[in-house]
Amino acid sequence: MRYDYVxxxxxIAGLYATLNIPKDKSVLLxxxxxxxxxNTFYAQGGVATAVDEEDIYAHIEDTLKAGAGLxxxxxxxxxxxNSILVIEDLIARGFEFDRxxxxxxxxxxxxAHSRPRIxxxxxxxxxxxxxxxxxxxxxxxxxxxxxxxxxLIEDGICHGVTVRQGAKQFNVYANNVFLTSGGIGSLYEFxxxxxxxSADIQGIAALxxxxxxxxxxxxxxxxxxxxxxxxxxxxxxxxxxxxxxxxVDEEGRRFLFDYDPRGELAPRDIVSRAIFRHQKAGxxxxxxxxxxxxxxxxxxxxxxxxxxxNLGYAVPFDRVPISPAFHFIxxxxxxxxxxxxxxxxxxxxxxEVACSGVHGANRLASNSLLEGLVFxxxxxxxxxIQDRQIRPKEFRQLPFVLTKSEDKALKERLRHIMWHxxxxxxxxxxxxxxxxxxxxxxEQDIGYLLKLRVLSAKAIIQAAxxxxxxxxxxxxxxx
Length: 479
Ligand SMILES: Cc1cc2nc3c(=O)[nH]c(=O)nc-3n(C[C@H](O)[C@H](O)[C@H](O)COP(=O)(O)OP(=O)(O)OC[C@H]3O[C@@H](n4cnc5c(N)ncnc54)[C@H](O)[C@@H]3O)c2cc1C
What we know:
Elements (H helix, E strand, L loop, with lengths): L1 E7 L3 H9 L6 E5 L7 H4 L4 E2 L7 H11 L6 H20 L14 E2 L9 E2 L6 H12 L3 E4 L2 E8 L2 E9 L2 E12 L20 H9 L3 E2 L4 E8 L8 E2 L2 H5 L3 E4 L18 H13 L4 E4 L5 H7 L1 H9 L9 E2 L1 E7 L2 E3 L12 E3 L4 E2 L11 H20 L20 H15 L4 E2 H16 L4 H19 L9 E2 L2
Parallel strand pairs: 1-2, 1-9, 2-6, 9-18, 17-19, 20-21
Antiparallel strand pairs: 3-5, 4-5, 7-8, 8-9, 10-17, 11-12, 11-16, 13-14, 14-15
Helix pairs in contact: 1-5, 1-11, 3-4, 4-11, 6-14, 9-10, 12-13, 12-14, 13-14
The structure holds flavin-adenine dinucleotide (FAD).
The site of flavin-adenine dinucleotide (FAD) has 43 residues, from helix 1, strand 2, helix 2, helix 5 and strand 7.
C-alpha cells in the first residue's frame, strides 16, 4: 500500500488536513474504532478566533498570558492571524456556526479571554457538528478500526506506518506522514477524553527518540461530573461559567473568590486547584445554574440539558456536583511552525499530539480546535511546496505482541498513580515514586500497547521532575 499521504487520526487535525490536500493526491486516513471516538467529537464550548483584524492583538495577548510566558510567540501570532482565514474557509465550505436572529455569528466568552470570541455550533455540540461536517467532506480513503503501532523511520525519513487490524498486521507507505492522533487522556484515572485516546503515538515517539516537549503541562478541567461509571467523565463546558453559572460549596458560597478575584473566570488551573483544595478541606463542590432560565439553558446547552435530565438532575434548577479531571495536554511531539517534526524530513504532527508552542504552560480555552485547523492547513501547505517523492523502501514486519494477561491490572495502577501523584498538585517525592513505578513496569513482561502508555507517562513524570518551579498548569508543592 502506497499513498501520497497517510494520516494517523480522524479528529479535527487529521480531517481538516485531508480537506486541504488536493483531490488528485492519494490520501489514507487511519483511525481507531469507532471513528467518532475522538476528543474533537466531544468538544462542547467552541472554537476561539480573533473576532476581526483589531482583535488579533488581544487574542495573542490573552494566549500568551494563559501560557505563562512559555508560549512560542511566533506560533501564537500564526495561530491568531490565521484564525479568521480558517473560520471563513469552514463557512465557505458550508459549515454552520450558531447565529443570532439577524444572521450574525454568535460569540461566547470563556475563562481568561478578554472578550467574547468563541464560535459554537449546535449550542454545546461544536465538536460533534465539526466532526460530522469534516467527515462528510473528506476525499480521503478512510480506514477505521485499526491501530497504528509503529513508524517506519530511517535516516530522518518516515517511510510509513505499521498498522494492526485485529490479528492482521501490515505496513502502509507514504510520501508524507501526518501524526494527528490526539492526546493522552486514558493515562489518568479521571479524565474527560474519548476512551481510545491512550498516548500510543507519544509512546512510539519516546521509543524512537522523536523530540517530546512540555509534557509536564497537563491541564485539568475544573468542572467535570465524575460520578458516572464510564471511563470518559462528563465535562461541563467553560462556556457555562462564561454565560453566568457559578461554582459553590454545600452552603451555596462562591468560595473561588477566596483564591482569585476573577472567581469563576480565573484561568482553568487556578480554578481546578481551588476546587481541589476546597474538596480536600472536606467541602462538596457544585456548579449552580440559578442565573439561567430553563428555556435559555435548553437552547444554549441542549446536550448538557439532556444528559443531566437523563441522570435525574432537574437542570437548571438543580445544581450538579463537580470535580476537576484531566482534560488536555499542552506538550507533545515538538514541531516547527509548519507542523514538521523536529529532525525529520516528511513527518508532521498536528493537534493535541503535537507541541507547536501555542499553548506554553497552559492552554487558553478553545484554542485547541483552532490549533488543529490552522496548523493542519499549514502542514499540508508545507508538504505541497516540498512535493516529496520518497524513494520506495520495504520494511520487515516486526512481531508485536500487543497485550499480555497482566496488562489490565498494571494499566489501572498506572492510571491511579498518574491521578494521585502526577496530578493537580504535585510533590517531588510522589513524582519520584511514580517514576519508579514506570521503571518497574517497563522491566516486566508486558504487552506492547501498555509499554507505549508507560513510556508516555514516564515522559510526563520526567518532565515534571525536571521543572522545579510551579508554572502554568504544572504546580509543584514543597520545593
Ligand atoms: C470533553 C472535551 C471538550 C472539549 N472542548 C473543547 C472546546 O470547546 N474547544 C476546544 O478548542 N477544545 C476543546 N477540547 C479539546 C479538543 O477537543 C482537542 O484538543 C482536539 O479535538 C484534539 O483534536 P485532534 O485532532 O488532535 O485529536 P482527536 O480529536 O482526539 O483525534 C485523535 C484521532 O486519532 C486516532 N488515534 C489515536 N491513536 C491512534 C493510533 N495508535 N492509531 C490510529 N488512530 C489513532 C483516534 O482514533 C482519533 O481518530 C475538548 C476536549 C474534550 C475531551
